[in-house]
Specification:
- With 342 residues, the chain is an alpha/beta fold.
- The chain folds into two domains: 27-177 and 274-338, Alpha/Beta hydrolase fold, catalytic domain (Rossmann fold, 3-Layer(aba) Sandwich), CATH 3.40.50; 180-269, Rna Polymerase Sigma Factor, Chain: A.
- The chain is 37% helix and 19% strand.
- It has helices at residues 112-115, 123-136, 150-161, 180-198, 202-217, 220-226, 241-256, 259-271, 296-305, 323-326, 328-338; strands at residues 27-37, 46-56, 62-66, 91-92, 97-98, 103-107, 142-148, 166-172, 232-234, 237-239, 283-287, 310-314.
- Keywords: Hydrolase, Transferase.
Amino acid sequence: MSSQPQPVSPAVSDSVAAAGAMRPDLTTQRSARRVTLTPKYGSTPREVDVRYLWCGAPDAPTVIVQGGISATRDVVALDSESAAGWWQDQVGAGRPVDLDRCRVLSIDWITPADFGDVQAVSSEDQADALAALVDALGIGRVHAFIGSSYGAMAALAFAARHPYALGRLVLLAGAHRPHPLATAQRSVQRGIVRLGQDCGQPEQALALARQLAMTTYRGSEEFAKRFAAAPEFREGRFHFPVEDYLEHAGRRFVERFDVERFLALSESIDLHDVQPEQIAAPSTLIGFPSDRLVPLADLCELQRRLHGPATLEVVESPYGHDAFLKETDRLAPLLREALAGC
C-alpha cells in the first residue's frame, strides 16, 4: 500500500475550516485527500479521494472512530449551527472520546465507484484508505481505533494489515467474520433492492430493505415494549403500530443513501474475513447479548483467538445491535477506560 497525497479538485473536496463557533482552541479539518490504493478486488493501483473529518485538540494523539455502513465522517459537529454527528453523545470536549485530550479522525466509507470499475469493496480497502490517510496527514500512528459494527470490521482489518500504525483496538458489535444468519438477512435485503432496480422502483425497494434491516438492528424486548398496541383500521386495511415506525425509517434512509452505495457496503460486510491470530494490538471488545447480527458467541471466539491481550465487556441492553448508539451512559466508562492515556 502506498500513499501519494495530491491536490483534490473542488468537486470532491470540502473547505478546511477552523472550528471556532463553540471552541476556538479545537481545530477541524473536513476535507479530502487523494491517495493511491490497490483494491482487493482489483488488479492495479488506483487513485482514490478519501473524504475525512479530523478534529480535536491540536497536537493531541489521534483516535480513529468509524461506525456502521450508514455512518459518515461526521461523527461529531463542533459548530453549534451544524447537525449533530452520529456519535455526538460520546465524542466531544469532556466526553468519553475527549476532544480536549485527543483528535478524532473519521472517513466516509469508500465504494467501488470511488475506484472506478472494481468488482467490490472490502474491509481491507477501508483499512488501507485509513492507513494511507494517516500517513498523508503526517499522523504516523494512531492512539486507538474505535470501530462499531462495520467500523469494527474495518478496525480489525487495519490492525491486521497496519499493526505499527495502531496503539489499541476498541470494537463494539463487530467481529472477525459475519455470522451466516446475518449474511442471509442482508442477502435478502440486497435481493429486494435488485428486484426494485429491475422493476424500475429502486428507491421504494431500498426503503423496504431498510425496513427489514431495522428488524435485525433492534432487540425483541424493545419491539415488544414499543409496539404492543392494537392495530388501527385506516386506508382500507389494518395498520400495525410497528409499520409506521418502519416506514418512517425507510423514508429517512432513502433521503440520505443511494442504491448502489447500499448494495456495495452491505456486500462488503459479508465479504469480511480477518484472521484474529494476526492481530497483536491490545483490544477491548464490547458486545450485547440482545444483538442478533453479531452474537456474543462470535465475540467470545474473537477474544480467544486474538494474538494480543483482549478483554470482553458484556452490556445488557434491549436495543440489540443498535445498543452501541443507544447505551450512551453505560458505554461511557468503558470507552474512557479503553482510551486511558490519551
